[in-house]
Amino acid sequence: MRVKVLSLALLAAIVALPVPASLALSGTFSAPSPVAQVNPGNENLRFLLQEAMTECTATVIRDTLVRFERLPLVVRLPDMPALAPESRVRVAIGRIDLLDVTLECRYAGPL
């Protein structure tokens, strides 16, 4: 009976918090890191593998940061020359690792 009382007290404390329960349980109250936006999602990598894509088009956001056109994916291309924002480029897709959730890609030229 004591365990039930403690769990109900914990539930009442979580409901009373001014933040969503998912944030309360994860222990974080900060805004998402900008690195999280650059990190490719597993579902995006799976799509690239399923479609056997070796090259994609992307739009330059700034510096070496590009956004893929067919996917909600933003990556850095360190070998890309300085281009104006909103320029369209080709991105060559290299190794995709679903376990580490990493994507190797390089600048393949302007579009």
Q: How does the SSE layout of this entry go?
A:
Blueprint: H1 2-16, H2 21-26, H3 34-38, H4 42-50, E1 55-62, E2 65-68, E3 74-76, E4 88-97, E5 102-110
Antiparallel strand pairs: 1-2, 1-4, 2-3, 4-5
Number of domains: 2
Shape by Cα distribution: elongated
The percent of residues in helical segments reads 25-40%
CATH topology category name of the largest domain: OB fold (Dihydrolipoamide Acetyltransferase, E2P)
Topology order in helix (H) and strand (E) letters: HHHHEEEEE
**Unreliable sequence segments:** 1-6, 32-38
Average the pLDDT over all residues and give the rounded result. Answer: 77
Distance between the termini: 68 Å
Number of helices: 4
Helix/strand structural class: alpha+beta
The Rg value, from CA coordinates, equals 21 Å
Query: If classified by CATH, what would the architecture of the largest domain be?
Result: Beta Barrel
Q: Count every beta strand, where a strand is a DSSP E run of 2 or more residues.
A: 5
Strand content: 25-35%
Strand order of the largest sheet: 3-2-1-4-5
- At the fourth level of CATH, the homologous superfamily of the largest domain is Nucleic acid-binding proteins
Q: Give the CATH level 1 class of the largest domain.
A: Mainly Beta
Biggest pleated sheet? 5 strands, antiparallel
Task: Note down, in words, how this protein is organized.
This protein is α+β, with helices and mostly antiparallel strands and 111 residues long. It folds into 2 domains: 1-30; 32-110, Beta Barrel (OB fold (Dihydrolipoamide Acetyltransferase, E2P)), CATH 2.40.50.140. The protein is built from 4 helices and 5 strands. Strands 3-2-1-4-5 form a 5-stranded antiparallel beta sheet. The relative contact order is 0.15. Residues 1-6 and 32-38 have low confidence and may be disordered.
